[in-house]
Structures are given as structure tokens and as C-alpha cells.
Amino acid sequence: MEITVNGDVLTVKEDITNIEELVQELHLEKKSLIVEHNQTILKKDKHKETAISEGDKLEIVHFVGGG
């Protein structure tokens, strides 16, 4: 399945069916994230119930500390 993440086309395995699984696949589950799915910002508690499909567009922003 092909989706767009942060402007880049990404091919993901068919068994990845929701935002939570995608975040885990991208190794971002331990980061503070904001996820926009097809122009809708999702609260973290909606990641598991939000399905992803061919052609979806996502923006994933995570915070980086430093000084």
C-alpha cells in the first residue's frame, strides 16, 4: 500500500491498518507526536481506531529537545 508521509511516498505492508501500527513501524512510538491524517489532526487516543488506506496523506511531527 502506498501512502504519503511528510510529502514522501511510502510503501507500507498491507498488515499495517491504522495510525498506531504505522507509528510503531516507523519507530516513533516513544516520541511526542502530532499526526495529521488527510488534513485532520488526530488526538493520540484516536491513533488505534483511525484506519489508513491506499493514497492517504499524513504529516507526522515529533518534538526534539536540545539547547
Automatic annotation (TrEMBL):
Listed Pfam families: ThiS
Alphabetical list of InterPro entries matching this protein: Beta-grasp_dom_sf, Mopterin_synth/thiamin_S_b, Thi_S, ThiS/MoaD-like
Domain of life: Bacteria
SUPFAM superfamilies named among the record's database cross-references: MoaD/ThiS
Positions in coiled-coil regions: none
NCBIfam families assigned to the protein according to its UniProt record, in alphabetical order: thiS
Protein name: Sulfur carrier protein
Source organism per UniProt: Gracilibacillus orientalis
Origin organism lineage: Bacteria, Bacillati, Bacillota, Bacilli, Bacillales
